[in-house]
């Protein structure tokens, strides 16, 4: 009786890997093994460790071995949309890396390698669509980081050391249960902010307060009772015809 096993996936040979090398837009050598149905890291590609870019995205890889450190020329590494639950500390040795995409995996905060903060030349880091409940403050050491993806995790906060990175231009942290989002905004209409309204009878008011209220009520009644005479025609001294010049400026007024 055959034992139950997971999918074996496609076997990548050195010949297949060599045929998968492309020239990138920047002129470097790119090993593109994306969407190949791979379930395990192909050991044969260690013989091609002089490539500048490595794309293993959209596969079913569960583990990246420590031997990834042999790709010392690597500047671009794409591992998104796999089954990764952790990464080796050896990834921190890839000092030339400027792009790292590990989104849409099964990474938790505990399984993030501490050595990520050693990637001093990293400019783009995508950690979105994982299982991260916090972000290590040590990522604040990535001073050259320009773009950071943290979307679709379970983050409740982002450390200031990360938010205030000096060169960070783009931060995508959408769809996280941040604590700040649970607070309701203050209503814009001031009358909605009144918590208690006190009503009193006229006999309980002092003379000056009573006189003020009566004067205000009298003025309001005068405004309410004023109706324009049918014989009176409205005048538009600044307009040739009503709305003739207003039409061109409606959008401007609306913005104000």
TrEMBL record:
Source superkingdom: Eukaryota
Every Disease resistance R13L4/SHOC-2-like LRR domain range: 70-190
Region of interest called Disordered, as start-end residue ranges on this chain: 225-256
Cited PROSITE patterns: LRR
Keyword Repeat: yes
Pfam families with a match to the protein in the record: LRR_14
Segments crossing the lipid bilayer: none
Key words of the record: Leucine-rich repeat, Repeat
PANTHER family the UniProt entry points to: LEUCINE-RICH REPEAT-CONTAINING PROTEIN 18-LIKE, PTHR48051
Name used for this protein in its record: LRC18 protein
Protein source organism: Caloenas nicobarica
Gene giving rise to this polypeptide: Lrrc18
